[in-house]
UniProtKB/TrEMBL annotation:
PANTHER family: PHOSPHOENOLPYRUVATE DIKINASE-RELATED, PYRUVATE, PHOSPHATE DIKINASE 1, CHLOROPLASTIC. This is Pyruvate, phosphate dikinase. Its EC number is 2.7.9.1. NCBIfam families: PRK05878.1, pyru_phos_dikin. SUPFAM superfamilies: Glutathione synthetase ATP-binding domain-like (SSF56059), Phosphoenolpyruvate/pyruvate domain (SSF51621), Phosphohistidine domain (SSF52009). It holds the Pfam family PEP-utilizers_C. Its cofactor is Mg(2+). GO terms for molecular function: ATP binding; kinase activity; metal ion binding; pyruvate, phosphate dikinase activity. Residues 424-505 form the PEP-utilising enzyme mobile domain. It comes from Blastopirellula marina. Belongs to the PEP-utilizing enzyme family. It catalyses: pyruvate + phosphate + ATP = phosphoenolpyruvate + AMP + diphosphate + H(+). Substrate binds at residues 563, 619, 748, 769-772. Keywords: ATP-binding, Kinase, Magnesium, Metal-binding, Nucleotide-binding, Pyruvate, Transferase.
């Protein structure tokens, strides 16, 4: 098979071969060549060769260097130069380039082919000795670094000494004599640290360089980069060997990098930098200060004009923003790279809208161009780049929930609530949070924890609210009693302000300035397009009126999951809740529940009002009861006193409720089976609230959802009880208007999915609770998964965290089966999803494909889900 592809005037073989084999850089060099842009000719060695290199125990495949040789021969003919020649030598660069861009994986080697003889040839042919030795010193430096791992500092020191000796401040002020001297020193350094002399045979240089590129594919930093970015399944890197053009030939030469549009705002304005008399990475390395690309017209008008034309050609060809690299050799422009430009969420939205206006792309393409997840950036306040640049970063935790928060430190939930109430902005700082901290978390502007991962309680809850959260910042020592933290040798008291960045995990001292998000006209336009193309409904998970309203503003078409347990954690309610749990007789339990009823009703009135004319799926109580009881002795004593019972009693009840596997224990519908009065109270509250709304001409549309059903018989029993209660409440209220309350269930136990045809006999809707369904299908405890899951994704045992992206292969089968079996029994069965997956674009794609009616996600993810649903439908 062909290992080497040529690009140039003679022929361009790589066009259409594909990124997989040629790498992004190689393919685009071939493509730019084929549309007649000025690209220095060269060859691309395929990624397959890299794969073969590793398969054969790190040996270059037989015949490779012959093919490379042929390529070089064609280059020599095309350019009328000769590799290693002492008159007019051909020089090349050796560049890595995988199918996915991996910046910083390997340094490029420039000016390869120079040796003690050809450097003289180059000086003569160009009549520029200074330039020739500048090229040579760069080669020895880069070759030494990349191929032989000589520490660049050694070269750096020698260069500094020479600059001093010749009174030069800048690198391009060193005269030819100085550079000649420097090359000799570089060769000596090379000899000293490698034990060999710098190779004089150009073909040998090339072979070693090609091998070094292949080796760079598996360096720790490259492997780590792929891990972090989730890049998998690539063959390896391609190698591009490209004839050199020189930006370091004097004041009429230079090199630069640019974006065809502004990548951070999206503004349609050429954006970039260039540097006169420079080569390669000089621009980004900060050797000298580059100039903005707009200044180029003053330096060379014709070249600038040509560059602008090429910019338009590239956008017209790729129909997307390009990130380009170019070089000017004695007034002649050459293109060295182009790729799709990375951009912020805001830029993605603006660019998509602009390009539709310009007729470059259609609406569908525009929608597909915007990474749905990146919309998060448009929905949250963020730190300004300016203020971030001089922030004092104390430590870094996990970027658990994006956003920017600035506040004083609070150490308990109660403190957070109280101080917020008094007008302070607080950041709740805890080792880890628990459900009891909910109130404090809600009132805080940000949450900071020293333990716990991306799926810890704090992280999940914070993401749900779009609240900024940094989790697992292990370097922070929290002293809750003394109300202070210690980090990086510094101490911060409860009166001190810190800033946390939930998008990066940074914890910073003092106030870092933020800017509020602007929902621009373009953003609204994108949402409108998305609604036109999507077929999936988008609901929200919300259990408070304010969240419901926010979700509605973001376009939610109802509530897919209203959890009722959070409603019981507020001060007065938790007491009644505990009283109910501690009660010994049904009678006492009912008495305690009766105290909770008005609270619940009030909550529902608020939510139904915020969601008028839209369905609200209310899930009945789900967690095991022990979660509501205090576990420390002091709190147990307190509740005992309030309720007038003995502390021993409380303690024994807590012990009694203890379960070895609470997630598989007495929870969900199982609670209602043993304590039907809980279900009765909740259903009563729902129906009374709906009637109260209706009387105020507010169209409440409640749906009752029974969680954790595993058998049809469970649902049959509980549905019966719910229906009885509904009828009873309606009768007692004397209401005689219309009130259709659907009753359905969550499908979150594998058995329910397997027997969905039976379950559907008693359910008017299914909502797939994919958090529990994933937990139970894999047998992974969702709360403890961080002990091993990182290893599983690292070793590629799993392609992704199944709690973040729905496992389509396994868990997905259960969803698919649930839908089809359920609809066989009940044709109009409404099916939705309400797990965390409902806000994940890849999972939304799956939901679309299996024919769900809607997804439900946290309010802040609603716009993301709308876009992802459209993308799934296009
Ligand atoms: P990276 O992937 O790190 O950007 P590149 O392979 O693009 O590395 O090379 C970095 C820079 O080296 C390019 O932007 C360009 O300025 C310079 N360069 C590479 N090949 C050549 C060449 N054939 N002629 C002139 N400069 C080159
Ligand atoms: Mg590059
Ligand atoms: Mg569940």
């Amino acid at each position: 098979t062909k290992m080497v592809y040529y690009f140039g005037k003679t022929k361009t073989e790589g066009k259409g071969v594909g990124k997989d084999l040629l790498g992004g850089k190689g393919l685009n060099l071939a493509e730019m060549t084929s549309i007649s842009l000025p690209v220095p000719p060269g060859i691309t060695i395929t990624t397959q060769v890299c794969a073969d290199y590793y398969k054969s125990g790190q040996k270059l495949p037989k015949g490779l260097m012959d093919e490379v040789n042929d390529g070089i021969a064609t280059l020599e003919k095309e350019l009328k130069k000769k590799f290693g020649d002492n008159k007019n030598p051909l020089l090349v660069s050796v560049r890595s380039g995988a199918a996915v861009s991996m910046p910083g994986m390997m340094n490029t080697i420039l000016n390869l082919g120079l040796n003690d003889e050809s450097v003289v040839g180059l000086a003569n042919a160009t009549n520029n000795e200074r330039f020739a030795y500048d090229a040579y010193r760069r080669l020895i430096d880069m070759f030494g670094d990349v191929v032989m791992e000589v520490d660049r500092d050694h070269f750096e020191h020698a260069f500094t000494a020479i600059k001093k000796k010749y009174n030069a401040t800048l690198d391009n002020e060193v005269p030819a004599a100085g550079l000649i001297e420097l090359c000799n020193e570089y060769k000596a350094i090379y000899q000293k640290y490698t034990g060999e002399s710098f190779p004089q045979d150009p073909m040998k240089q090339l072979e070693l360089a090609v091998e070094a590129v292949f080796k760079s594919w598996n360096t720790t930093r490259a492997v780590r980069y792929r891990e972090v970015e989730g890049i998998r399944g690539l063959l390896g890197t391609a190698v591009n060997v490209q004839s050199m053009v020189y930006g370091n030939m004097g004041q009429d030469s230079g090199t630069g990098v640019a974006f065809t549009r502004n990548p951070s705002t999206g503004e349609n304005k050429f954006y970039g930098e260039f540097l006169i008399d420079a080569q390669g990475e000089d621009v980004v390395a900060g050797i000298r200060t580059p100039q903005p690309v707009a200044e180029m017209s003053k330096w060379n008008r014709a070249v600038y004009k040509q560059l602008l034309e090429i910019k338009d050609t590239l956008e017209a060809h790729y129909k997307d923003v390009q990130d380009i690299e170019f070089t000017i050799e004695k007034g002649e422009l050459f293109m060295l790279q182009t790729r799709t430009g990375k951009r912020t969420g805001a830029a993605a939205v603006k660019i998509s809208c602009d390009m539709v206006k310009e007729g470059l792309i259609d609406e569908q393409t525009a929608l597909l161009r915007i990474p749905a997840n990146d919309l998060t950036q448009l929905l949250l306040p963020s730190f300004t780049t300016e203020s971030k640049s001089h922030a004092n970063v104390l430590t870094r935790g996990l970027p658990a929930s994006p956003g920017a928060a600035v506040g004083v430190l609070a150490f308990t939930a109660e403190e957070a609530v109280e101080r917020t109430h008094n007008g302070e902005k607080v950041i709740l700082c805890r080792k880890e949070t628990s459900p009891e901290d909910i109130d404090g978390m809600h009132s805080a502007v940000g949450i900071l924890t020293s333990t716990g991962g991306m799926t810890s309680h704090a992280a999940v809850v914070a993401r749900g609210w779009g609240r900024c959260c940094v989790a697992g910042a292990g370097e922070i020592e929290i002293d809750e009693k003394a109300r202070k933290i210690k980090v990086g040798g510094k101490t911060f008291k409860h009166t001190d302000t810190i800033s946390i960045d939930g998008s990066t995990g940074e914890v910073m001292a003092g106030t870092v300035e933020t800017s509020e998000p602007k929902l621009s006209g373009d953003f609204a336009k994108v949402m409108k397009w998305a609604d036109q193309y999507r077929t999936l409904g988008v609901r929200t998970n919300a259990d408070a009126p304010a969240d419901s309203q926010r979700a509605r503003d973001f376009g939610a078409e109802g509530i897919g999951l209203c959890r009722t347990e959070h409603m019981f954690f507020e001060e007065d309610r938790i007491i009644s809740m505990r009283e109910m749990i501690l009660a010994e007789t049904e009678e006492d339990r009912r008495a305690a529940l009766a105290k909770l009823l008005p609270f619940q009703r009030e909550d529902f009135v608020g939510i139904f009002t915020a969601m008028k004319n839209l369905p609200v799926t209310v899930r009945l109580l789900d967690p095991p009861l022990h979660e509501f009881l205090p576990h420390d002795v002091k709190a147990q004593k307190e509740i005992a006193e309030i309720l007038g019972i003995s502390a021993a009693k409380v303690k024994s009840r807590v012990a009694q409720l203890h379960e070895s596997n609470p997630m598989l224990g007495h929870r969900g519908c199982r609670l209602s089976v043993t304590y039907p009065e809980i279900l009765e109270m909740q259903v009563t509250a729902i129906v009374e609230a709906a009637i109260e709304c209706k009387k105020k001409r507010i169209n409440a549309m409640p749906e009752i959802m029974i969680p954790l059903v595993g058998t049809a018989a469970e649902l049959e029993l509980l549905r019966g009880k719910a229906e009885e209660t509904i009828e009873k409440v309606i009768a007692e209220s004397g209401y005689n208007g219309q009130l259709d309350i659907l009753i359905g269930t969550m499908i979150e136990i594998p058995r329910a999915a397997l027997t969905a045809n039976e379950v559907a006999e008693h359910a008017q809707f299914f909502s797939f609770g994919t958090n529990d369904l994933t937990q139970m299908t894999f047998g992974y405890s969702r709360d403890d998964v961080n002990t091993f899951l990182p290893d599983y994704t690292r070793l590629e045992i799993l392609p992704a965290d199944p709690f973040q992206t729905l496992d389509a292969t396994g868990v997905g089968q259960l969803v698919e089966m649930g839908v089809s079996k359920g609809r066989k029994t009940r044709k109009d069965l409404k099916c939705g999803i309400c797990g965390e997956h409902g806000g994940d674009p890849a999972s939304i794609d799956f939901c679309h494909n299996v024919g769900l009616d809607y997804v439900s996600c946290s309010p802040f993810r609603v716009p993301i889900a709308r876009l992802a649903a459209a993308q799934a439908a296009i």
